[in-house]
Specification:
Number of helices: 9
Mean pLDDT: 77
Number of domains: 2
Shape: globular
Number of strands: 0
Distance between the termini: 44 Å
Strand content: under 5%
Length: 179
């Protein structure tokens, strides 16, 4: 019932419109959190037993989501497709995470990124700014080149910076990470 309210338009009261539309996703998050323990173990066990099927399903779901996204951009009824796209993308991320978790050799780099996630978020910003100024403003490289460089170096460089400098000293750890 609440899902139906998400698609009722309140053009004269934008705050109400916003709260109702995004309240659906908040509510679904609460429902998912309440039932996560019950279904997570079963799904993990199923995906571990059917590993090739999991990878295939994740790729297929991604392709389906991409196709629906294209339709979404060109559709008049985009509000109705939005819920479908969000649910597909959420399930795709879950399938990918279970697939990565089942493959031990691929799991380690993702665990490292997860361990240093906050460091990447905080330090990577400054690295990306420096790269953008250097590559775009000073050297005039094409957008694709400097955006890929910003992504790669903004993801990789904060890990050794944090590991060997920020987390090594109590003062820098407190200033940069608050711990």
């Amino acid at each position: 019932m609440y899902t139906c309210y998400a698609y009722i338009q309140f053009p004269f009261i934008p705050l109400v419109d916003y709260i109702i539309k995004y309240g659906v996703y908040f509510y679904l998050g609460i429902v998912a959190a309440e039932h996560y323990e019950k279904y997570s173990g079963r799904l993990t066990e199923f995906f571990n037993r059917h590993l090739p099927l999991t990878g295939f399903t994740a790729v297929l779901t991604f392709v389906l989501s991409f196709g629906v996204s294209i339709v979404y951009k060109n559709s008049v009824a985009h509000w109705y497709l939005q819920f479908f796209i969000i649910m597909i993308n959420t399930l795709t991320c879950y399938c990918f995470s279970l697939f990565i978790n089942a493959l031990k050799e691929i799991k380690k780099p993702f665990m490292t990124i997860g361990k240093y996630g906050m460091d990447i978020y905080l330090i990577g910003y400054y690295i990306q700014i420096a790269l953008r100024v250097l590559l775009k403003s000073m050297l005039g490289t094409p957008y694709t080149v400097y955006s890929i460089a910003m992504f790669v170096f903004g993801l990789i460089l904060p890990i050794p910076i944090s590991k060997y400098f920020v987390r090594k000293f109590k003062t820098t750890r407190m200033l940069a990470l608050g711990s």
